[in-house]
Design brief:
Blueprint lengths: L4 H29 L2 H5 L7 H8 L3 H14 L3 E3 L4 E3 L2 H7 L11 H10 L1 H10 L11 H22 L6 H7 L2 E5 L5 H9 L4 E6 L2 H14 L5 E5 L10 E7 L8 H11 E12 L11 H20 L12 H10 L4 E7 L3 E7 L1
Parallel strand pairs: 3-4, 3-6, 4-5, 6-7
Antiparallel strand pairs: 1-2, 7-9, 8-9
The structure holds S-adenosylmethionine.
The site of S-adenosylmethionine has 21 residues, from helix 8.
Length: about 350
């Protein structure tokens, strides 16, 4: 076997960079949970002792952590004064919890995937599924917090206005269902923006529904938001004006049944909003960091859950617009169009 030395070196460099990022992910999680990034945000150049003092942590640990951050480009270093600085851009991604690009929570999903590796190993061998509820609990909080920030930045400002006539109905007072709502951040965001409307969130995972109720209570919207444990093809029909699926239709083993149930639960001029991970239709369209992340998560989370439902489909998180449109049309929704998109999400509107 002839090995091209140049290609080998380039690939080793690439894999080593990935390995280094994996170690760095543990450091990002520590930095977030210990308040190290927050201690540095807006502080200008600071010594390791000052970061340790502000965060209430041991200086020697903090100094080693800081050096790892500098090596990764997540913190700047000033050699003359031996000080460390979190720039405004670094702070936006690592310290500002409400920023749409705040990323530390995403490492909780990776942590859950490592913790559940034995389940994945066995599932590959048996071909059986692993349901959402069987995973390490860091998955649920990690996914909820990661998606929440992107919904925060786009849902009310861009996605709802991109749907035909929906914001007018919401402002007047509409009935909205959020299917596969998880921790309910999307439901609560919409409820806060549209106080005249009434909202229902449904999910099969009881612990997520309990968490969603707490999110609604904390936001003070529990009088107009109801969360119930229910399957996507069995939730209470209620003449909804808007039915939403946020990053969950591809997880379902019977997505056509779910969309058909939604279609028959809508008011005559109701709208279905489908939010899915961004993807192209062909494998070769998705060969980029977003595709890599979603195909990986999809392998042990999304496909595994859909297989566990023993249904008709295993779409995966990179299903792409053509397959999604097919699912919606098979469910009797004749009018389907892409309403909006971001680098991470496709937003599809479907009507009867
Ligand atoms: C990736 S999470 C997304 C959660 C939430 N929509 C969000 O954006 O944060 C997928 C959710 O779909 C739910 N789910 C999966 N299959 C379901 C089904 N057949 N019926 C209802 N919910 C389902 C899971 O329990 C999980 O909460």
């Amino acid at each position: 076997m002839l090995v091209d030395k140049e290609k080998l070196d380039a690939l080793v460099g690439r894999l080593f960079g990935d390995l280094s990022a994996g170690y760095g992910g543990v450091m990002v999680s520590l930095g977030h949970k210990l308040g190290l990034y927050r201690a540095m945000a807006g502080a200008g150049p600071v010594s390791s002792s000052e970061v340790a003092r502000r965060s209430g942590c041991g200086e020697r640990y903090v100094r080693e952590w800081l050096n790892a951050q500098v090596a990764g480009g997540y913190v700047d270093y000033h050699p003359i004064s031996s000080t460390y600085e979190l720039t405004p851009e670094q702070a936006t991604i690592l310290a500002e919890e409400t920023s749409p690009v705040f990323l530390p929570h995403a490492w909780q999903v990776v942590a859950s995937m490592w913790a559940d590796e034995p389940k994945a190993l066995s599932a590959f061998k048996t071909g059986e599924g692993v349901s959402w509820s069987e995973h390490d609990e860091r998955l649920f909080c990690g996914v909820a917090a990661f998606f929440r920030n992107s919904y925060n930045g786009s849902l009310v400002q861009e996605w709802l206005p991109a749907l035909t006539g929906v914001t007018q109905k919401l402002a007047r007072g509409a009935r909205v269902a959020d299917i596969g709502c998880g921790h309910g951040h999307s439901t609560v965001l919409m409820a806060k923006a549209y106080p005249q409307s009434r909202f229902w969130g449904f999910d099969v995972h009881p612990e997520s529904i309990a968490a969603a109720r707490a999110v609604a209570r904390e936001a003070g919207v529990e009088d107009r938001v109801t969360f119930e444990v229910a399957k996507a093809d069995g939730f209470a029909q209620n003449g909804y004006d808007l039915i939403c699926f946020f990053d969950c239709l591809h997880d379902m083993g019977r997505p056509v049944d779910a969309a058909r149930h939604a279609a028959s639960s809508m008011a005559d001029d109701g709208t279905l909003m489908l939010v899915e991970p961004f993807a192209g239709d062909r494998v070769e369209d998705n060969m980029n960091p977003v595709g890599r992340l979603y195909y990986s998560a999809s392998t042990t989370l999304c496909c595994a859950h859909a297989i566990s439902e023993k249904g008709t489909h295993v779409l995966g998180a990179q299903a792409g617009p053509r397959q999604l449109e097919e699912v919606l049309r098979s469910a009797g929704l004749g009018s389907v169009r892409r309403a909006a998109q971001t680098p991470f999400n496709l937003i599809i509107e479907a009507r009867r």
